[in-house]
From TrEMBL, chain A:
Protein name as annotated: Cytochrome c oxidase subunit 3
Domain Heme-copper oxidase subunit III family profile: 1-205
Residue spans crossing the bilayer: 28-49, 69-89, 101-122, 142-164, 184-204
Membrane protein topology class: Multi-pass membrane protein
Protein location: Cell membrane
Keywords associated with the record: Cell membrane, Membrane, Transmembrane, Transmembrane helix
GO biological process: aerobic electron transport chain
One GO cellular component, as annotated: plasma membrane
Main location as per UniProt: membrane
Family: Belongs to the cytochrome c oxidase subunit 3 family.
InterPro entries: Cyt_c/ubiquinol_Oxase_su3, Cyt_c_oxidase-like_su3, Cyt_c_oxidase_su3-like_sf, Cyt_c_oxidase_su3_a-hlx, Ubiquinol_oxase_su3_dom
A molecular function GO annotation: cytochrome-c oxidase activity
CDD domains given in the database record: Ubiquinol_oxidase_III
Automatic annotation (TrEMBL), chain B:
Transport among keywords: yes
NCBIfam families: CtaD_CoxA
Domain Cytochrome oxidase subunit I profile stretches: 11-523
GO molecular function: cytochrome-c oxidase activity; heme binding; metal ion binding
Catalytic EC class: translocase
Protein name: Cytochrome c oxidase subunit 1
Bilayer-spanning residue ranges: 29-50, 70-95, 107-129, 155-181, 193-220, 240-264, 276-297, 309-334, 346-368, 380-400, 421-440, 460-484, 555-573, 579-597
Reaction(s) this enzyme catalyzes, per UniProt: 4 Fe(II)-[cytochrome c] + O2 + 8 H(+)(in) = 4 Fe(III)-[cytochrome c] + 2 H2O + 4 H(+)(out)
EC number: 7.1.1.9
Length: 206, 619
């Protein structure tokens, strides 16, 4: 396929993200990458489960966590996953403007989530004096949830960069895989959060 | 953009720039070979220093602290900076050719993986110059590692983190390459065994390395940011490190060993002039070993106190691996059986490998018996075991592969006489060094002690062991001489000097940068051999001559890795002085900035035009 066919395709196929060999490679490589990420988070969860009672006399999960804020955060992130699905739906129909709008909503929801998380950490650190150095539980909590938060930050920066970069030129066979992977990444982050919500917060207060 | 013949006459600066920016898997292979070879020599010198310290009782060649640094850096260097990259060298040089591809799936990431490995490797060794390298063993058990003073262990953590990221990227790259880039007709069950083992090893990398990544992060947080994962005083638990390390660590030994098996499968089949016996069983055994490799990590922790139930389960699972391994041994023997065997250097290594590795497997089953392992654990018996499998299975394979694929990589054949000399020196030296260590271990000599006392029955054994080590050093020197001699003589060979069977031998040595002018049509296992038996000289093309798409070179991978390297110093030294955080931010800024550039700048590669290809053919 020539450069022109990729950057200015005369005809957009239904799966623009997998229309080129490069797109196919990226698609598959990213799934493999997510497999590795799964092991990464599994290791972090395992560590957390081993240490979540090791409060060293400090704050415990029952004392710290409340479900209200976490519920809002969960709703924000779950909804953002849905909106990114809408975005991909429009991508497959080659409706670039609509895709950008839904991606924009996804980013807004993600930022909302991030704001809540920052507030939560700030509250624990300054209100409860619960830090990474308080206890092994503290270390495990901030590492697991922080790793997820770091993924959220990266995902947001990624989506924003793609939106700005392609704002003017629209969709083509070169950037479609990029959008698609970013949305896959976003779903993965969401799935991890579901586990964090269950293992860290629900099991933590019950 | 199609500069075809320009590669020949270039100045030193241009060549250097070419390698710094290359995304060509063949050049990346050469860089892996050189860098891995360099670290192999460093690790070897460390080994010789260890053996020289142990040559006689109560020796004082090195201090106890320095000894700890030597054993730590020897193990770490050999596994992560020598064996891994050398395996990657051959995977890069050979796998795309064996499946009939023009490059790997992600050439840019391929180069990034290499530079991450190299900068990580340098980082690991910086400790030597800043007051002491890592000294907590290559396994870095907490609390030894978390309480080790100085920055040595910090360099270990950061260095492995950076090079580990490179390895992970490499693993993903080969998985996708093998799934998506095979030539027409190259079905899974026609893939050469080396490609199969590279495939399974890559899958192991993908699922094993993240556990190490997490372990290293936790250790970094403990050492540098005051966390308490492994610190009982904060409620932490040091056994978590051991689990994470070995969940990575046991698969790691198979990440190394499986491609080694692959190399020997190619060599034994080629020089027996027979297709590999039991190909299907070999593939099956490879996959099974890869799978079981994840089930056995706790056999390194029998004495930690997991209880009899856990110990038994892990003991049985461990012993089960001996079954697929045995299948492989017999298949190699049956391939030899009745073949018209040609004994040259690569074949000698293969023949030496079979009994050596079998011995290592047998001691493996011995140490896998959990109750008996209470005796063996942390003695020289274990040292003997793992050197029999790693040197016998991996290092032998790397030597064999070097002699076997040298013509494909460089277009010249290494001298066979010198090659055989290398083999005999190394082979005899190896068994002198390590066979006796079984008995030293059984007599109670613990590993990692810097001295032993006189007249406890250990003197002679240690002396012999040290002599053997120097013979191995000699063998390696002969290889270096061989390389220099061969390169100076520079006698070019044909594309197929061994009368071999697989696709890489169907194209010139060294191959043109686009590998295959026309993608080949694969019509069976050992595709080149299939064509030869039907009287054809080369492969039948699967496509007409068309333009070839090639990726652009890029300097970004180098800079990205450099950024992480710089950031590493910031991470380490901010523990003394927070102003080092600036260095951290600068380094991370460089890396993230490069990632952004990579994301927003279009990079579609270029085309080699078919007119140029035709012209080249006429020249
Ligand atoms: C039949 C197959 C094998 C079995 C049953 C086996 C079993 C074991 C066991 C039980 C141990 C722990 C001994 C102890 O620390 O007390 C061990 C150590 C080790 N094995 Fe194996 N092994 C096998 C093959 C391999 C292979 C193929 C490799 C590498 C290519 C390997 C590399 C190692 C290493 C590096 C250690 C020691 C790590 C350390 O403590 O520093 N093994 N093996
Ligand atoms: Cu093991």
């Amino acid at each position: 396929m020539s450069e022109q066919d990729i950057l200015n395709p005369k005809h957009m196929p239904h799966d623009p993200e997998k229309a080129t060999l490069e797109g196919k490679n990226k698609f598959m490589g990213f799934w493999f990458f997510l497999g590795g990420e799964t092991v990464l988070f599994a290791s972090l969860f395992g560590t957390y489960l081993a240490l979540n009672d090791s409060t060293n006399g400090g704050s415990s999960s029952e004392e710290l966590f409340g479900l209200e804020l976490v519920f809002i955060m969960t709703m924000l992130l779950l909804t953002s996953s849905l909106t990114s699905v809408y975005a991909m739906y429009h991508m497959k129909n080659h409706a670039f403007k609509k895709m950008q709008i839904w991606l924009g909503i996804t980013v807004a929801l993600g930022l909302g989530f991030l704001g809540c998380e920052i507030y939560e950490f700030y509250h624990y650190i300054h209100g409860e004096h619960f830090t990474m150095r308080s206890s092994a539980f503290g270390s495990a909590f901030y590492t697991l949830v922080g790793f997820h938060g770091g993924h959220v930050v990266f995902g947001l920066l990624w989506i924003i960069a793609l939106m700005i970069r392609n704002a003017r030129r629209g969709l083509n066979l070169y950037n479609a895989p990029k959008f698609y992977l970013a949305s896959l990444y976003w779903h993965f982050i969401d799935v991890v959060w579901v586990f964090i919500f269950t293992v860290v917060y629900l099991m933590g207060v019950l | 953009m199609s500069t075809m013949v320009a590669t020949n006459k270039k100045g030193l600066g241009a060549t250097l720039w070419d390698y710094l920016t290359t995304v060509d898997h063949k050049k990346i292979a050469i860089m892996y070979l050189i860098a891995g070879g360099f670290f192999f020599i460093i690790g070897g010198l460390e080994a010789l220093a260890i053996r020289w310290q142990l040559v006689q009782p109560m020796n004082d060649f090195v201090s106890s602290g320095f000894y700890n640094e030597l054993i730590t850096m020897h193990g770490t260097t050999m596994i992560f900076l020598a064996a891994m990259p050398l395996i990657f060298a051959f995977m890069n040089a050979v796998v795309p050719l064996q499946i009939g591809a023009r490059d790997v799936a992600f050439p840019f990431l391929n180069s990034l993986g290499f530079w991450l490995f190299l900068f990580g490797g340098i980082m690991l060794n910086v400790g030597w110059f800043t007051g002491g390298a890592a000294d907590a063993g290559w396994t870095a058990y907490a609390p030894l590692s978390t309480t080790s003073i100085g920055e040595g262990v910090d360099y270990y953590v950061l260095g492995l983190q950076i090079s580990g990221a490179g390895t992970l990227i490499g693993g993903i790259n080969f998985l996708v390459t093998i799934v998506n880039m095979r030539a027409p007709g190259m079905t899974y069950m026609r893939m050469p065994l080396f490609t199969w083992t590279a495939f399974v090893a890559s899958a192991l990398i993908l699922f094993a390395f993240p556990a190490l990544t997490v372990g290293l992060f936790l250790m970094m947080f403990d050492r540098l940011f005051g966390a308490g994962f492994f610190d009982p005083a904060m409620g932490g638990n040091s056994v978590i490190w051991q689990h994470l390390f070995w969940i990575f660590g046991h698969p790691e030994v198979y990440i190394l060993a499986l491609p080694g098996f692959g190399i020997f499968s190619e060599i034994i089949s080629t020089f027996s002039k027979k297709r590999l016996f039991g190909y299907t069983a070999m593939v099956f055994a490879t996959v099974l070993i890869g799978f079981l490799g994840f089930m056995v990590w706790a056999h390194h922790m029998f004495t930690v106190g997991m209880g009899p139930a856990a110990n038994s389960i892990f003991a049985v699972a461990t012993m089960a691996i001996a079954v697929p391994t045995g299948i492989k041994i017999f298949n190699w023997l049956f391939t030899l059986w009745g073949g018209s065997i040609q004994i040259n250097t690569p074949m000698l290594w293969a023949l030496g490998f079979i009994p050596t590795f079998t011995l290592g497997g047998m001691t493996g089953v011995m140490v896998a018996a959990a109750s008996a392992d209470f005796q063996y654990h942390d003695t020289y018996f274990v040292v003997a075991h793992f050197h029999y499998v790693i040197v016998g299975g991996v290092v032998f394979a790397l030597f064999a592969g070097t002699h076997y694929w040298w013509p494909k990589m460089f277009g010249t054949v290494l001298d066979d006489k010198l090659g055989k000399l290398t083999f005999w020196l190394f082979f005899i030296g190896f068994h002198l060094t390590f066979f006796i260590q079984h008995f030293l271990g059984l007599m109670g000599m613990p590993r990692r002690y810097w001295v032993y006392m006189e007249n406890q029955g250990l003197d002679l054994g240690n002396m012999i062991s040290t002599i053997g080590a120097f013979l191995m050093g000699l063998g390696t020197i002969v290889l270096l001489i061989n390389i220099i001699k061969t390169s100076v003589k520079n006698e070019k060979v044909s594309g197929d000097p061994w009368d071999a069977r697989t696709l890489e031998w169907a194209i010139p040595s060294p191959p043109p940068f686009y590998n295959f002018k026309q993608l080949p049509l694969v019509r069976g296992l050992d595709p080149l051999w299939v064509e030869k038996t039907e009287g054809r000289k080369g492969m039948t093309p699967a496509e007409p001559l068309t333009d070839i798409h090639m990726p652009n070179n890029s300097f970004l991978p180098f800079v990205m890795s450099l950024g992480l390297f710089i950031a590493g110093f910031g991470f380490i030294y901010q523990k003394h002085d927070l102003s080092w955080l600036i260095v951290l931010f600068i380094g991370m800024g460089i890396t993230l900035g490069c990632m952004l550039v990579r994301s927003v700048k279009d990079d579609l590669g270029y085309h080699v035009h078919k007119e140029d290809l035709k012209k080249e053919a006429e020249e």
